[in-house]
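Final report, closing paragraph on structural work. Over the funding period we assembled a curated collection of sequence-structure pairs, and we close with a single example.
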Amino acid sequence: MLTYNQDVGALLNARCANCHFDGGVAPFALETYEQVYNQRYAIRAAVVNETMPPWQPADGCNTYEGDFSLSADQIASIVEWVDHDAPQGDPVDDVNASALVTGGDGSEGMSRIDLSMQMPQGYEPQLFPDDYRCFLLDWPETELKYVTGFHAEPGNMQIVHHVIAFMISPEDAVDYAALDAESSAPGYTCFGGPGGGPSSAVGWIGAWAPGDPGGNTPAGTGIPVAPGSKVALQVHYNSALYVEGMLDQTTVHFKLDDTVEKPAFVLPYTNYQWLSGSGMDIPAGEASVSHSYLFDPTPFLGMSLLSDGLIQSNTAFEIHSAGLHMHELGKEIKVEVHRANGDRTCLLEIDDWDFNWQGGYSLENIEVFEPGDKLYIECEWDNSLSNQRVIDGETQEPRDVHWGEGTSDEMCLAVIYITAH
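Its predicted structure, as stored:
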């Protein structure tokens, strides 16, 4: 017979305990047998429905490093164990690792920490039930450095839902400083991106979501950050869990190197006409609305300040990882490479979008993108009455939606980590 100590406990620690610990972002802890036993039926339902662990990529698209989804056999073991009243087993056979295995210094999945940056002061959420706040940090390095590892350490796991570190180029640093100065409270409100408009040179450095231990970039690669840059740290506060007086002061950790074999660039990919409000109409009341875009970006890769000199225009590049982004009306989203010869390569597909679980996914095998190939992104939304936000107990009426930064706007975006080939 399966027992907690011999079979199930180690699995739950490996897959669940990074979120389900005392003070964590999850609503209850799963650190001890007693805690797990009390939630055994909820655990059974979540794994059978495949809502937990929150692994989003659809089966059959691609394969990824660090896949923490449960196999059919693992799900069956949990179900069998619960159905036999979840026995604990002999304590002397307890093979569980500690619930949270960390680097002890905040590094967790990173091999080392070379730079840590913290929000300058504690912030108390102001907007409900979600508060998106950007905090502008000065990049302290005086020479060009390459970010080769990233991890975010939330100051308050109960309310921090995700963290994204955006790099602001030296050319745009003054504009962002002015944006930050307009708010009397720490930071400024932001959503989707750090603000600044579509023409600003903004790049992703790293991101964190619950359960993410952080880590190094793919071997031999790193994102260059120039002296004089700033970091816009976007923190999403799940303020529905807020208690009056609760503060957060999140820290981000970086691994840095002076040189790398292949400088990397985070390519945000979408139809840029959508950003100006053209072509991504999502009418009120429609339960299924789809938009797609197909384009070869290689002629334009060398035009960005952030990629200048890293990846030349009209040359091949390598795709190492991909992430996808929509807002709360999203249903499905995918990004593919449509080859010049007619073949298709799926990079990432999420067929049951959940705004609360977002992240990037590293491909097990690098995909090469040749000039003449095209990137394809497709998004589907549900703008029916049944899929609207509930505020103060009232379901909001559907309205026409377009691209935008606001909570009630929408996006259709792929975030792709690339290097020269």
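The radius of gyration is 22 Å. Residues 93-104 have pLDDT under 50 and may be disordered. We thank the funder for supporting this effort.
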